[in-house]
Amino acid sequence: MSISSLVRLLISLFVAFVVLAQSDKPHCVVESSNGKSDDSPAIKAAFTKCASNGVIEFKAGVDYNVWTPITHKLNNVDIRVNGNLHLPNSIIKVLQITNGRKVTWFQFSGANVHWIGSSNEKYGWINSYGQQWYDANPPGKTGLEGRPHLFRWAVNQGTVRHFKSRKPMGWNVGISGDNNLITDAIIDAVSSTSAFPFNTDAFGVGARNVTIKNSYILNGDDALAIQNGAHDILFENNTIGYQTHGMSVGSLGGDPNSPADVSNIMFKNITVKGGLYAARFKSWKGGKGLVQNVTWSNIRLENVTFPIFVTQTYQNQALGQQSRPSGQAVRMKDFTWSNFSGTINTQNPGDGSCVKPCWYNDGLPTLRHTEAVILGCDSATSCQNFVLKNINLEPAGGNAHTTQICMNAKSDLNPRLGIGCSNGTFRAI
Ligand SMILES: *[C@@H]1O[C@H](CO)[C@@H](O)[C@H](O)[C@H]1NC(C)=O
Ligand SMILES: *[C@@H]1O[C@H](CO)[C@@H](O)[C@H](O)[C@H]1NC(C)=O
Ligand SMILES: *[C@@H]1O[C@H](CO)[C@@H](O)[C@H](O)[C@H]1NC(C)=O
Ligand SMILES: *[C@@H]1O[C@H](CO)[C@@H](O)[C@H](O)[C@H]1NC(C)=O
Ligand SMILES: *[C@@H]1O[C@H](CO)[C@@H](O)[C@H](O)[C@H]1NC(C)=O
Ligand SMILES: *[C@@H]1O[C@H](CO)[C@@H](O)[C@H](O)[C@H]1NC(C)=O
Ligand SMILES: *[C@@H]1O[C@H](CO)[C@@H](O)[C@H](O)[C@H]1NC(C)=O
């Protein structure tokens, strides 16, 4: 036998083995009690049995009670969510589980894991029955204590397709694994009463190489919050709205001893339908570190209160402005806002997250709610190489003219700012 035919034989044996191995992939179909009891034990058993090179399947159209949290480390696994998952429809039951601790209901780690929700819009939902939590928030408070986070994805090299969250109790998805693609997600945190859905952030990302696209997000906090350690993040082709707090970088610099390190963040081709913020940077007073190369481009706005917003005096509304170091701030470098079009919410600005004193108006005595741009740089050196171009925003309902607030973005470090750094009428130069 020649060397080359031996090699061919070995290759064909290897291919045969791989195919066999694939057809042998353990396949775990999760059984349901059909609403009678907690299906978490069955779910855990399936995840344990198929944790490596497996397929875990929630059956099409079937309802599953996930009444206790699920945490698994997986390797090379497909999670097919063709049914609907239900968290406890009872505040008391959930509080018995969280019991004063920080709990995340679903937590996945490992590598090459794929969450594949149903492409049928009726299935693949996680129902969290959050409305009763929004309604139970005491007046003047910013959300009930003891709410769990919904979902943590600490997977490296993963995909999350058709993730659907209905009425989350609070925070939706935290991504802390590298190299992930999230596509076709739906987040529905729309409150059916006047109660505000506090902290219903859709995505928080503190990881490398993450893309979130083709998604639809209606909620009452950040659509995406870029967290410390985020690099190479793309947020593209999404629609966000309702009481959204926008496409946010931050908050950063909360721990004055831990420098922020964030770079290469791109938000592009986004529609923002209503909401408090569209493009936002937030860092705490007295933070440290560097955020570099951030772009918001091709953004369409409908009636948004603060279209472009930079603050370096971010605070936790529940705690108020606290004593913080002075003479230092998180630095921002190479920030671009390009091609914004649409309208500013001038007629009825703000949202139900305002608890007196209203956090989002704090520190802005000259606010008129006709601002297209608010740049609140901490000092003459904290903002560098900012670029605003092709910003076409008008107050909704006409009559008023567009204004701006700009502090400390001096022209020597920001030669292409595109506006004069002052308060008053918005004027591109
Ligand atoms: C980024 O993540 C995607 C999705 O997992 C992956 O296909 C791609 O190879 C990654 N890019 C790099 C440079 O690692
Ligand atoms: C954006 O979404 C549209 C459908 O709404 C799709 O045709 C297009 O390919 C998407 N673009 C990207 C970059 O995924
Ligand atoms: C931009 O997003 C919209 C949907 O929001 C989509 O229809 C359109 O195809 C996208 N454009 C590109 C260039 O991907
Ligand atoms: C800035 O970030 C973009 C991705 O958003 C990337 O393509 C580009 O290379 C980065 N620029 C630099 C100078 O690193
Ligand atoms: C500006 O944004 C609009 C709407 O998203 C888009 O149709 C247009 O192509 C963009 N222009 C440029 C120069 O990218
Ligand atoms: C803008 O949104 C506010 C609610 O925040 C609403 O009262 C107002 O009518 C809206 N304006 C337009 C023009 O849609
Ligand atoms: C510009 O507006 C900001 C925010 O309201 C205010 O703090 C600042 O004093 C104003 N600057 C001037 C020169 O009036």
From TrEMBL:
Location of the protein in the cell: Secreted
GO BP field: carbohydrate metabolic process; cell wall organization
Pfam families: Glyco_hydro_28
Signal sequence extent: 1-21
One Gene Ontology molecular-function label: galacturan 1,4-alpha-galacturonidase activity
InterPro entries in the record: Glyco_hydro_28, Pectin_lyas_fold, Pectin_lyase_fold/virulence
Function: Specific in hydrolyzing the terminal glycosidic bond of polygalacturonic acid and oligogalacturonates.
Protein name in the entry: galacturonan 1,4-alpha-galacturonidase
Natural source organism: Microthyrium microscopicum
